[in-house]
Amino acid sequence: MIGRLRGLVLELSDEDALIEVGGVGYIVRCGVRTLANMPELGAEVIVHIESVTREDGTRLFGFLTKDERQAFVSLQGVQGVGPKAALAVLDIMTPMELAQAVASDDKTKVGRASGVGPKLAQRIVIELKGKPLTAAGVFEPIGYSPAAVVTTVKPSVNGESVAALMGLGMSEQQSRQAVDVALKDLGPEAELAAVIRASLKALGR
Q: From the UniProt record, which GO molecular function terms apply (predicted)?
């Protein structure tokens, strides 16, 4: 089974990339986000591969990050979600944004993906809870009281800091506690990078 390709980008289309490795050209199906971030033709690229075998053969799906590949795998584990729908979801959000949507039960955001209706979006949000959505580890949303969140802090900094820590394998509870400690030291106007560094320090990382 192919897990990664490292080669030259020979061709790019609306759905596929042709990657040459050792004189062999591999047709790799990619999402819009992946294709948009591909290097120019003739340049070298590393593509993380997930092989999907169906009755009509095996197709290679490619991603520029391990996180995207893991999210793609987990999405396909949801009943009714095939490769096309999984790519559609990852076209409109990153794995971390997907994790945040799952944690907040935001089926509306997931439902914005092409071909994903309200019922399927709801199923995705429900079935992805506790599933790995990044290569770093399992995403484990657990309950917390909204009143415990520091309301004077910019929501983006607070939320993105928590999401970043969860992407590194910490639980939501650990992440929120560490971010709270960091924000008490740095203040509510602290920059995202500084909050993440202070949070990791609080966790002893």
A: ATP binding; four-way junction DNA binding; four-way junction helicase activity
